[in-house]
Amino acid sequence: MHSQELHHAKEEKDSGNYLILLVDDNISNLKVLSLMLANKGYQVKQVISGIEALDFIDKQSPDIILLDILMPDIDGYEICTILKENPLTHSIPVIFVSSLANPSEKVKAFESGGVDYICKPFYLTEVLARVETHLQLGLLQKKLQSKNEQLLLSASLLSQSLEQEQIISQTKSSFVSSALHEFCATLTTIQSAAELLGYYEWTKEEKVEQLQQIQTEVSKTTLLMEDVSFLSSINANRLEINSTEFDVLGFCCQLLCQIQIDLDKNYNHTLQTSFSVPSENISIHNPHQLSSLPSAIVRMAKKLFSLIVCNLIINASICSPKGSNIDCQFIIHDGHIDIVVSDRGSGIDKDDLKNLFSAFNSGKNTDMLSGNVLALSIVKNCVDLHKGEISVKNRLNVGTEFTVTLPTE
């Protein structure tokens, strides 16, 4: 150990902060050692037996122990062995102070866990020098252990960060691959329909049907591009979130009317909606079919709210058999709003639950190419941006219920 490191350690802890335990059945030795160490500013505790020493250590841990070997109840070797076998006391340095000068006794002392050995009669300056040295070595050892623990923690955090980066990289790669697959599938359908128009003689009705198919695929591709762009903006932190006050009931009615038109066109589903304000005893069923409605003013990110509602219903429509109903509830509370959307599908397979909100994830109960494969990923990202919560109630062979809770203040 470098002398400069010992000097720095000595400066960091004053001698008055050290507690030294003296264990010896010779009262004279105890008095001499205690007086010398106390004059140097150390706190000193004296005991005359091994049992007393162990009892004291159970209550208070000393910084160093000066231990005699030959004592009437428990000898120094056994005391040191007991201390070294205890995780709470194994790091306390023990210096043996004994009249036994035989080399085999010294070896036995070190084998039992001692850090040093001083023969009686001793020189006070030698005892003091060895005590100071081992106290400073102990302090440096504790600092080294602390630094090692910090390094291990840093290494663990770095490893976790690298693993997370690898997961993110794999996710991005999978995302790009899936997006390309979707684009290619749609473009193949468009190309096939266009080629058929050129190769065969079609009636007017058949041409219109082929053109409608092309328009449908173009719309799907446009929507997919918008969704991919949206998720990319979120991941790059480029999306601006602006909260505004608006009438959520009136806004929902307009939004649901448009969604119902799309459902009629693409899925043949019927929305069964309800709107309630429990604190005011307001409960309205199918509000988008009514001409006059009360107002319900909230402060939220309007765009995120719209995307959450639309994509929850889109997901429900993909999972539900054609012609079935989709339930959508809006419940306004003080400070938050609940959006509950239920489908009539077969539920979610347990193997799909862990990746439920991953982009391009397609469960076993849906056809990936039948709808928006980014719907739930968009919902989850929007809910997180709005500092809300989302939960899933899975009912196999009955359907799935998604509940989104968003703050409104």
Strand content: 15-25%
Structural Rg: 39 Å
CATH level 1 class label of the largest domain:
Alpha Beta
Helix-and-strand structural type:
alpha/beta
Query: Which CATH architecture of the largest domain would you pick?
Result: 2-Layer Sandwich
Number of strands: 13
- Principal-axis shape equals elongated
Largest sheet: 6 strands, mixed
Low-confidence stretches: 5-11, 363-372
Q: Indicate the percent of residues in helices.
A: 40-55%
CATH topology of the largest domain: Heat Shock Protein 90
Strand order of the largest sheet: 8-7-10-11-13-12
Average pLDDT, rounded to a whole number, is: 79
Within CATH, the superfamily of the largest domain carries the name Histidine kinase-like ATPase, C-terminal domain
- Count up the helices: 10
What would you say this structure looks like, in words?
This protein has 409 residues and is α/β, with parallel strands linked by helices. The chain has helices spanning 3-12, 27-39, 50-59, 76-85, 103-111, 124-199, 204-235, 248-266, 302-319, 375-385; strands spanning 19-23, 43-47, 64-67, 94-98, 116-119, 243-247, 270-277, 282-285, 297-301, 325-333, 336-342, 389-395, 399-407. The protein has a six-stranded mixed beta sheet with strand order 8-7-10-11-13-12, covered by helices on one side. The protein has a five-stranded parallel beta sheet with strand order 2-1-3-4-5, sandwiched between helices. A two-stranded antiparallel ribbon has the order 6-9.
